[in-house]
Amino acid sequence: MTADAATLAKPAPEPRGSFGKVLLKAEGLQKRYGAIHAVRGVGITVRAGEALALCGENGAGKSTIFKILAGEVAPDAGRITLEDVPFHPDSAAAAVKAGVSMVYQEFNILPNASVAENVYLGRMERFCRAGIIKWPELYAAAAELLGRLGIRVNPRAEMRSLSPSAQKMVELARALSTRPRVLLLDEITASLDHDDAEILHRLMDELRAEGAGILYVSHRLQEIFNNCTTVEVMKDGAHVTTLPVGELDEDRLSALMVGREIGAWQRGDRDETAPVMLELVNLSGRGFDDVSFKVRQGEVVTLAGLAGSGADEILETVFGVQPVKSGEIQLGSAPYRGRSIVDAMNAGIAMVPKERAVEGLIDPADIRFNVGLSVLKRNGWGPFVNGGAEARAARDGMELFRIKARSAATAVRALSGGNKQKVLLAKWFVTDPKLMLLNNPTRGVDVGVKFEIYELLQKLRGERNLAVLMASEDMAEVIRLSDVVVTIRHGQVSGVFEGEAITETNLINAML
Ligand SMILES: Nc1ncnc2c1ncn2[C@@H]1O[C@H](COP(=O)(O)OP(=O)(O)OP(=O)(O)O)[C@@H](O)[C@H]1O
């Protein structure tokens, strides 16, 4: 279940007008990165009690504005005030000191240090006496803070032993421990599981009630309607409009963001008698037991489960990242005994992993290198016919996914978050797979590109007989894309749904 699904019933927060004083005001912000004009004269106003969602396509300039406000990036021009006092922080520490804290889209942690050290990163001096760290004081302070926020993490645990969601919650605790007057949250829910997203949204409500302001970025639009009060839409670095959430619906907001209406989604027909591409027969592995289901050619089968259900592990086991304990995997009706990623790739299996930062991309390298990395063989199809070189693959991938970058020689780390995700997708699509394993394929991707990816999957499914096994935490996506949904609960299959039976209520009941 997604954060979106979990919060569907929540009433929208108070409309604009009933807010307190202006906390943060930015006017005429400008920022260029070489030839890219990332922010073009944008203004932002955040009042006490307001949660302002900054909306726009991938690369619209949202993170750049956040980084300017957080003291991470210096604007080329513009005026910012915090409670009427000029605010031009030259470092993140200066912004935090003045009352503006940020949780970044990417992970910003020390993996080998404890949770407590990560909470007080850069502010450990308060626990030092005569140059010696008072560890009991540090752990006690972190335990008190985490307990007060309702974040269930052991302050003594090593950060890397935590799930990505728990790590992100520690980053949130770090930001909240500074008692910010304005909190910036950049796509934080892309890393959070359902329970943690609920805690986050409760904390946002509390913070607003205490008179703080929030700036929020998320590509899950339902989340914006449930948890934000106001929307600022940007396009290509420029201001489009500012509106109360009550005056918008999802279709209108999407259209404002991408500059065109996004059509209703039409699921294509599937052939229920097509040959089976993948079959799991009583498969057991780490985190799941006795799982059986089939994926036919041209079919999208989705594994839906709560965090920790075992759905991720099933995908990883098919791809050879996790070992098989017992049972069998069949690929194209023959037993598949591949036990490594290389075996899987040679067998025509591709996988888009969940954590792009950890598992997917080599950040300092350029797009060409990252996309070319996975081109093992080229049978040639569609836009890739007769392609041979990694440069060609990168160009095709960039075009297919409309990756916003100057050229294929752009380093991945200079891309916006959504464009990084597109590079990851391109990297695997250019391998011409027979079976695509997708774990949350549109995480961090804007609403326009989401639809492009859906259309591309639809096309490959129909024209290339691509079989897709997906796991997704985005309920709207599961319902839109899947021919069959296999719900996973506590590592076992709890239901199989097809056609009309794929409804949110049915799926959630089977997942819980
Ligand atoms: N350090 C950098 N060097 C060069 N270009 C950059 C850098 N950071 C961002 N850009 C470019 O500036 C533009 C705006 O990027 P930004 O990250 O602000 O977008 P965004 O709206 O947050 O996108 P997303 O939704 O994908 O996270 C993009 O074209 C991006 O490639």
Automatic annotation (TrEMBL):
GO MF term (any one): ATP hydrolysis activity
Family annotation (CDD domains): ABC_Carb_Monos_I (cd03216), ABC_Carb_Monos_II (cd03215)
Pfam families to which the protein is assigned, alphabetical: ABC_tran
Domain annotation ABC transporter: ranges: 24-261, 271-512
InterPro entries reported for this sequence: AAA+_ATPase, ABC_carbohydrate_import_ATPase, ABC_transporter-like_ATP-bd, ABC_transporter-like_CS, P-loop_NTPase
Top-level lineage group: Bacteria
Keyword annotations from UniProtKB, A to Z: ATP-binding, Nucleotide-binding, Repeat, Sugar transport, Transport
Family to which this protein belongs: Belongs to the ABC transporter superfamily.
PANTHER family, alphabetized: CARBOHYDRATE TRANSPORT ATP-BINDING PROTEIN MG119-RELATED, GALACTOFURANOSE TRANSPORTER ATP-BINDING PROTEIN YTFR
Protein name listed in UniProt: D-ribose transporter ATP-binding protein
UniProt source species: Aquamicrobium defluvii
